[in-house]
Specification:
It contains one helix and six strands; from the N terminus they run βββββαβ. The chain has a two-stranded antiparallel ribbon with strand order 1-2. Strands 3-4 form a two-stranded antiparallel sheet. The radius of gyration is 18 Å and the shape is elongated.
Amino acid sequence: MLTGSNPSSLTEDKLFPQKYTLQIKGRLITLDKPKIIGILNLTPDSFYQASRVENDSANILSKARKMLSEGADFFGLRGV
């Protein structure tokens, strides 16, 4: 991808030279910038105690909403 307004200032996007997309349940997700994955550990023996989530729906949804508000694009559920 080239950016800039005149030929002398055009630069090539070297970090993300090829653009990709994902089709997920009818939604088109563009991968033109890095995505953030929120990890929800649903097992009580997770190695990182602060990432553990009690396995009840209200608590899981609360944690997921918090991650969304902090910028998460996707979720990874561990222990399901």
